[in-house]
Amino acid sequence: MRMSQREVKDLDRIADIVARCDTVRVAFFGEEYPYIVPLTFGYETVGGKLALYVHGAKEGLRHELAARNPNVCVEADIFNGYVKTRQGVTTAYESVIGFGTIELAGHADSVKGLDLMMAHCGQSGHSAERCVALGITSVYKITVERITGKIRTADN
């Protein structure tokens, strides 16, 4: 990273940024171009790694791309406004970018993932178990192998 004073490596600080993000963007290997999708998500840290849970239709392009190649890139960010600098104006932000693998979650991980998504969206109390039993959605687990964060403030 060119501006190392802005880099965030500590997983707890990265998880704090992720907790305050509304959307995660997942990039897949497309046929001719990368394919990126903004998604609602839930997350947890397990064994020193970040795990993200996303959901969607049981079929479609991202479902096909995930089955073809499980390697993905994830990005999430928070816009904190514009700030004046000596050079002019810049953006204050916090962001994370990670690389990992995506897999269709089994029953238990699907329930856990939906529960984490609902909690992250401030909508706890819905029955994830019932949603999974209906079989109308696919839940994916992304295990992030490498991740870094970056924070740009008025001071740095």
CATH superfamily, called what? Electron Transport, Fmn-binding Protein, Chain A
Number of H/I helices: 4
CATH fold-level assignment: Pnp Oxidase, Chain A
Q: Which architecture name does CATH use?
A: Roll
- Give a short account of the largest sheet: 8 strands, antiparallel
Poorly predicted parts: none
Assign an overall shape.
globular
Structural class: alpha+beta
> How large is the share of residues in beta strands?
over 45%
Number of strands: 8
The span between the termini is 14 Å
- How many domain units? 1
Succession of helices and strands: EHEEEEHEEHHE
**Helicity, in percent?**
10-25%
Radius of gyration: 17 Å
CATH domain class: Mainly Beta
Mean pLDDT: 88
Compose a concise summary of this entry.
This protein is of the alpha+beta class and about 160 residues long.
Give an overview of the whole structure.
- The chain is an alpha+beta fold and 156 residues long.
- It has helices spanning 11-19, 61-68, 107-120, 128-134; strands at residues 7-8, 24-28, 35-39, 42-46, 49-56, 71-85, 88-104, 138-152.
- Strands 1, 2, 3, 4, 5, 6, 7 and 8 form an 8-stranded antiparallel β-sheet that branches.
- Strand 4 (42-46) and strand 5 form a beta hairpin.
- The model has no long low-confidence stretch (mean pLDDT 88).
